[in-house]
Write a structure and sequence with these properties.
single chain, mainly beta, OB fold (Dihydrolipoamide Acetyltransferase, E2P), Glucose Oxidase, domain 1, SH3 type barrels, 16-stranded mixed β-sheet, 4-stranded antiparallel β-sheet, 4 helices, 31 strands
Length: 377
């Protein structure tokens, strides 16, 4: 049978998820191999160096830089409070003294006799890395972090914004083709991950933030509403670092896009359960997809499930479920009905490999293989 290799979008009931949890710089690892952790367990911590502040002491005191030594009240290595005097002039007959106050809390690192400037460093910033998912620690990176493993229902979206959050799954739409509006958002949504249907409106997102919801998972969003929500036009950079007050995951595409039945059903099976979600997305090189991870109750330390499920298999074959990821059929679901081996000339006059697809509305189209991704289950 003909087959092709193509990126896959996973919508899987049972999947072995492995997550590296690393510090931005070396620190202390708090967990060990075999330890059971939950999503909020702090597995590693460190301190980031504080910001540097520069104080022009010689300029403030009106003295030559080389004479600073006789005016200093603090020496390098001393801790200092904001407003505390670093150096003070002798004044005129003990009066009219000039003072150089510290602009911050921190440590006096150095004073230059050439520039007359003092370098002060603000207090270090503590950084903690949590496990993100419930599971077992299966590997430790010395002074850097750990790998946490769990068997979970694993669903990837097509696009998202916002970083890692955890919350209880809460359905605000009864059907996968419904529109999520602000009318469905109320106090019950606080601290929840809201599951919608085919579309979420900008007012609904705004109200969800006001009511304290942690995330929204929905089939589609209008690009204009997304721009209004973000406050800027989204480029090709990696998303996930936004501080918007909520994480948004789009499972199907832009516009009103009915959530895939399998995705909707899997989520519905886990109503009231806690999920870990992340909106980080990168479409180009080094593909990164937004994700929903729902750890399963039976989670042995050494799972029999292979990471990646069908990865390394034949890939795309006749009958494989797919999603179109480029216009003019962006977001449409379908199945492969043919894999011609010969190259075909497309509108751009390029010759590419194509596949025959039957879309969910029964239309049959011929598409470049690069325009689809397989839905792995």
């Amino acid at each position: 049978m003909a087959h092709a290799y193509t990126p896959g979008l996973k919508v899987t009931e049972k999947f072995l998820v492995r997550k590296e949890r690393r510090l931005p710089l070396k620190g202390e690892v708090l967990s060990k191999v075999g330890e059971q952790v939950n999503c909020d367990t702090v597995v590693a911590k460190t301190n980031l160096p504080g910001n540097v502040q520069i104080l022009n002491v010689a300029g403030i005191l009106g003295c030559p830089p080389q004479d600073l030594g006789e005016y200093l009240l603090k020496k390098p290595g001393d801790t200092i409070r904001k407003g505390e005097t670093v150096a003070q002039s002798k004044g005129f007959f003990g009066f009219f003294k000039s003072k150089a106050p510290s602009p911050c809390d921190g440590t006096l690192e150095s004073i230059s006799n050439i520039t007359g400037q003092a370098i002060l460093r603000e207090p270090p910033q503590p950084v903690q890395v949590d496990a993100y998912i419930d599971g077992s620690v299966v590997e430790v990176f010395e002074r850097e972090g750990v790998v946490v493993e769990t068997v979970a229902t694993f669903i990837q979206g097509i696009f998202g914004v916002g970083g890692e959050i955890k919350g209880e799954l809460f359905f605000v739409s009864d059907k996968p083709d419904e529109i999520l509006t602000e009318k469905e958002i109320d106090e019950k949504c606080r601290d929840k991950v809201l599951i919608g249907g085919a579309l979420v409106t900008a007012p609904a997102v705004k109200k969800a933030i006001e009511k304290g919801a942690k995330g929204i998972v929905v089939g589609g969003i209008e690009d204009g509403d997304l721009k209004a929500f973000l406050g800027y036009e989204l480029g090709v950079a990696i998303t996930g670092s936004e501080t918007l007050g909520i994480t948004l995951i789009i499972t199907e595409g832009f516009g009103r896009m009915r959530m895939a039945d399998k995705t909707f059903s899997l989520l519905k099976e886990h109503i009231g359960e806690r999920a870990s979600i992340n909106g980080a997305t990168q479409i180009r090189a080094g593909v990164m997809r937004p994700e929903i991870i729902i750890p399963l109750d039976s989670n042995p330390p050494h799972s029999p499930f292979m990471k990646g499920g069908k990865e390394g298999g034949l890939g795309l074959v006749v009958g494989s479920p797919i999603r179109v990821i480029r216009e003019p059929f962006f977001g449409q679901l379908g199945k492969v009905t043919g894999l011609p081996s010969e190259l075909q000339t497309i509108e751009t006059e390029s010759k590419v490999r194509v596949l025959e697809v039957e879309l969910s509305d029964a239309r049959r189209v011929l598409l470049p293989r690069a325009n689809v991704e397989m839905i792995e289950g």
